[in-house]
Write a structure and sequence with these properties.
The structure is a single chain. This protein is of the alpha+beta class and 395 residues long. The protein has three domains: 18-141, Immunoglobulin-like, CATH 2.60.40; 153-271, Immunoglobulin-like (Sandwich), CATH 2.60.40; 320-393, no CATH class. The protein has helices at 2-21, 281-315, 317-337, 341-354, 359-373, 382-393, and strands at residues 28-34, 47-55, 59-65, 72-76, 81-87, 90-103, 107-111, 115-121, 127-133, 137-141, 153-154, 156-163, 176-185, 203-207, 211-217, 220-233, 238-241, 244-250, 255-261, 264-267. The strands form six sheets. Strands 1, 2, 4, 5 and 6 form a five-stranded antiparallel sheet that branches. α3 (317-337) runs antiparallel to α4, α4 packs antiparallel against α5 (359-373) and α5 runs antiparallel to α6 (382-393). The radius of gyration is 32 Å and the shape is globular.
Length: 395
């Protein structure tokens, strides 16, 4: 009985193997295509990758396994797209996946083999498993050019400046909300520059936490940021906001550019014209007294507005601190990408001081210091350090 059972299992296994071997490799193909670019991409520049499968057999189930993409960050551009086409007069199924990769180091990078695990049907309508693999693909990445400020490579940049109400027609004591929208095609949200500091020598400026999101398009991810401030003049008349500058590298013309948002005036609207000259001294005294009362009332109103804004700012401290921590993490990521160990250590120490004590995080920092300052210093993998350190920051 046992021998008969073993023979049956052997026959089943042999049958499944025979069915697997009977698959014509030309019936199931999978390839990876890296976008052809006129110039060698720089570190941080988007490279589009397409995974394309062609299947001449019926598929009941499937799962595409992506390899580990060393030396690059990546983002999938939507769901897999399945469609039919004709080959030699026969309908075949196609699968297409699009991803955007962002190299974080220069040199030759490799996209390893993708594996597509398929469940197929044999001639007797029995399921069996079968896998196909793509060939590895390599491409070159160049060091980024030396630029002043934030390295920000994009394929297209759009910046808009909007206001909640006309900024030069404010009611006394009123503030205005300014929103700058930055949309960058070919960038992920973490690549956007930090929210600039809006300054004014004669205005009270309250910065709101920035918002970041991403819009997935067929041409790559579009990173979007909203920078928001509430501004109120502090001299009872008007305030001038300093210009805002955003530098970026245009990957189409391969040139560094700068967008400058010109200075903006924020002012209270003009009041009623002053009264005509008064001849009578008693009338002049009354007018002077009235103007004095108005001045006192205006000062009281401005003091109330200032106190209210100060209270608002105090209540917003947790949000501001959270934004500061986010900016430090973005700077830490950038420093790790460019291999700046000193900046990585300094930024990590700042984040560590602001977080509750954690033995795991302390061990990660100690390991970095041992690599940098030990008896036998060695170059640490800053990318691995950053991931371990950020993971240890989580509560």
């Amino acid at each position: 009985m046992v021998i008969r059972l073993m023979l049956c299992l052997l026959l089943l296994a042999t049958g499944a193997t025979a069915q697997t071997l009977a698959v014509d490799p030309a019936d199931l193909t999978l390839e990876v295509q890296v976008e052809e670019m006129a110039q060698t991409p720089f570190v941080g520049e988007m490279v589009l990758v397409t995974i394309h499968g062609v299947y001449k057999r019926h598929i009941t189930r499937e799962k595409l396994i992506q390899p580990k993409l060393d030396g690059m960050n990546w983002m999938q551009l939507g769901e897999d797209h399945w469609y039919e086409s004709m080959i030699d007069g026969r309908p075949v199924k196609n699968m297409r996946r699009r991803i955007a990769v962002f190299p974080d180091r220069a040199g030759k990078l490799e996209i390893g083999a993708f594996e597509h695990r398929l469940t197929l049907l044999d001639e007797a309508n029995r399921w069996f498993e079968y896998s196909i693999h793509s060939a590895p693909v390599t491409f070159e990445v160049a060091e980024p050019p030396a630029v002043k400020g934030w390295w920000f490579p994009v394929r297209n940049l759009e910046i808009s400046d909007s206001w909640s109400n006309p900024p030069d027609q404010l009611k006394p004591g009123e503030g205005v909300l300014r929103v700058i929208r930055v949309a960058a095609l070919g960038a992920s949200p973490d690549m956007l520059p930090p929210m600039p500091e809006l300054t004014s020598p004669s205005g009270l400026v309250f910065a709101h936490p920035e918002k970041r999101l991403v819009n997935l398009t067929p041409y790559g991810p579009e990173a979007i940021a909203f920078w928001r401030w509430t501004i109120t003049p502090t001299n009872a008349r008007s305030a001038i906001l300093e210009p805002i500058r955003v530098g970026y590298f245009d990957t189409r013309d391969r040139q560094q550019h700068e967008v400058v948002i010109s200075p903006q005036r924020v002012a209270f609207e003009e009041g009623t014209p002053p009264p005509a000259a008064v001849q009578d001294r008693s009338h002049a005294y009354v007018a002077l007294q009235a103007r004095g009362l108005l001045a006192i009332a205006a000062l009281a109103l401005l003091a109330g507005v200032a106190m209210a804004l100060w209270s608002h700012q105090a209540s917003a401290q947790p949000a501001i601190e959270k934004l500061r921590q986010y900016r430090l993490r973005v700077r830490l990521l950038r420093a790790a990408r460019r291999g700046d160990a000193a900046a990585v250590r300094a930024l990590a120490r700042q984040l560590d001081r602001a977080a509750p004590a954690n033995a795991g995080r302390a061990a990660v920092l100690h390991e970095l210091d041992r690599s940098l300052f030990g008896k036998a210093p060695e170059a640490p993998d800053l990318g691995v350090f950053r991931r371990r350190f950020v993971a240890a920051l989580r509560p």
